[in-house]
Amino acid sequence: MKLATHHVEKPWGRTDLPAVFAARAGAMTGEVWFDAPERPLPLLVKWLFTSDRLSIQVHPDDTQARAAGAVSGKEECWVVTSAEPGASLGIGTLRPLAAEELRAAVLSGEIENLMDWKPVRAGDFYFIPAGTVHAIGAGVTLVEVQQNADITYRLYDYGRPRALHLDEGLAVSRAEPYTDPRSGRIDQSAEQALVDCPHFSLWHMRGDALVQRAESAAARWIIPLSGTAAADGASAGCGECLYLEDAAAMSVTDDCAALVAFARPSHGG
Predict the structure, then answer these.
(1) Is the pLDDT score of 214 beyond 70?
(2) Tens digit of pLDDT for each residue in 168-208?
(3) Measured distance between the N- and C-terminal CA atoms of the chain, rounded to whole angstroms
(4) According to the model, what pLDDT value does residue 266 have?
(5) 154 part of the active site
(6) How far apart are CA 240 and CA 216, in angstroms?
(7) 260 in Cβ contact with 210 (< 8 Å)
(8) Which has the closest alpha carbon to 61: 71, 51, 53?
(9) Average model confidence (pLDDT) for the chain?
(10) Choosing from 14, 53, 154, 206, which is the catalytic residue?
(11) Number of Cβ atoms within 10 Å of the Cβ of 175
């Protein structure tokens, strides 16, 4: 089925979204995300559009989140689809920071200079494990695939008047340099495994590979980056998302390239 589309306004959003997203005039859209209104799904797919830096934040893991009364923690993967010159992602810190040093840096604002702001361009991808201190910079468009949990602890928000969660965030943060190997660049010409984690795997696929993977019995989300994919009477292009729970016959246009997220069997829909 084609998932329902939601536009979410954010203070760091943009008014100049690509035409395929049919943005409302004047709206500061920061997120476009997809769901099945009739039931929760284990993964959430979003597009993000930034004109300013997002808060410096952290997510708990499953155990930490459940101890706080939430359903699950949040791990996510970012795939950059476009980036303005000088755009960056803050992932980890330049050096390890103990909890009290991190607290002092957040309160003083020095955390801005201690983040590892990585220059990015289209085709870069990064997996963000729970506990990673992170922020998305300005001038970035990316696809985010995440555990479907609304649990974010803001550590620092550049003085914007939004709630912070300093104590909760410090308790789950690993403020250290980012070394996760699940990052790199997409090979646009090949089928490529991007990320594998306990909750999902994420692939980049084109053409026939997409058709063959449609035979999988695992729950999966198909996120076209170009062209169109169709299955079970529903079709989706860039700016849309298909969800398939069982094996299905699929057709794709010659120019179709997509991200495909597979839920782990214990995290199926």
Answers:
(1) no
(2) 999 999 999 999 999 999 988 778 999 999 999 999 999 88
(3) 13
(4) 61
(5) yes
(6) 21
(7) yes
(8) 71
(9) 93
(10) 154
(11) 26
164, 156 Cβ separation under 8 angstroms: yes
Task: Give the Cα separation of 125 and 194 in Å (integer).
Answer: 8
Q: In DSSP terms, which residues pair with 123 in a beta bridge?
A: none
Distance of CA 159 to the CA centre of its chain: 24
Amino acid at 206: R
Contact between residue 60 and residue 68 where contact means Cβ atoms under 8 Å apart = yes
Q: CA–CA separation, 100 vs 103, rounded Å?
A: 5
Return d(Cα 222, Cα 259) in angstroms, integer: 6
Tokens 């209104």 -> residue: 37
Place of tokens 């299955």: 231
CA distance 170 to 251: 47
Q: How far apart are CA 47 and CA 79, in angstroms?
A: 9
Asked if residue 268 has pLDDT above 80, the reply is no
Is 46 in contact with 149 (CB distance < 8 Å)? no
The three-state DSSP-derived secondary structure of the chain is CECEEEEEEEEEEECCCCHHHCCCCCCCEEEEEEECCCCCCCEEEEEEECCCCCCEEECCCHHHHHHCCCCCCCCEEEEEEEECCCCEEEEEECCCCCHHHHHHHHHHCCHHHHEEEEECCCCEEEEECCCECEEECCCEEEEEEEECCCCCEEEECCCCCCCCCHHHHHHHCECCECCCCCEEECCCCCCEEEEECCCEEEEEEEHHHHHHHCCCCCCEEEEEEECEEEECCEEEECCCCEEECCCCCEEECCCCEEEEEEECHHHCC
